[in-house]
Amino acid sequence: MAAARRLLSLLLPLAWAWPEGCADPLDGGWPAGAVPEEERCSVERADASLTYSLFLQRFAFSRPVILRGVTDNSAFRALCTREKLLEAFGARPVRLSTANTYSYRKVDVPFRYYVEQLLEPQDPAKLGSDTLYFFGDNNVTEWGPLFQRYVPPPFSIPGTSPAYSFGVAGSGSGVPFHWHGPGYSEVIFGRKRWFLYPPEKTPHFHPNETTLAWLHRTYPALPPAERPLECTLRPGEVLFFPDRWWHATLNLDTSVFISTFLG
Question: Model pTM?
Fold first, then answer.
């Protein structure tokens, strides 16, 4: 009991060490959501013991994997709190895209306006073409100082070069099923649920239906053999997806995330 009291006396000052007026270090000042996680993660996980040769052999060209502990992005994460991003980029314009599969409408607004006025939980009745989402269209000159602090996953694919895509999105938002080249996606704050199908297995979806609507309407009726691989990423976790794999995303909380596309 005495040892426990001594430990508590050491921990209590730490609990009050976060400066007044700063965002909660656990959530970065970004609101939590109520969208559920999957019952069971079906994507394989790997840790820092994964070697580059094993990554190439088992995952790079064949199936997704979730990596944890392969990089340390605590410095980058500290710059991505709500307070810090608004301070650095609040007055700068960002390009929003509609959350549908094939046709994207673009809207330019100041980042502060997006965060304070548009960053709300997804309306289940809205179509993808009516849902504005900040992901991918980053002005590299303006966002470059932030990207320079990011430590990308250590495993490259021969013949490719990386390009970053940074985003902030509200609870329930996401991008419907689509595919492109291989890449990584890391969650900085919040939780992000992923649904993935291999290239030869086209998912059942409507290109203008949001991922949230698909989860409510289509997903429950899928036979077990037709369900996607799925898993929820938490801060510090990185998903690798191979070339041409179908994937859809769903932000369970207000999420901050960065993808590394290998083009």
Answer: 0.88
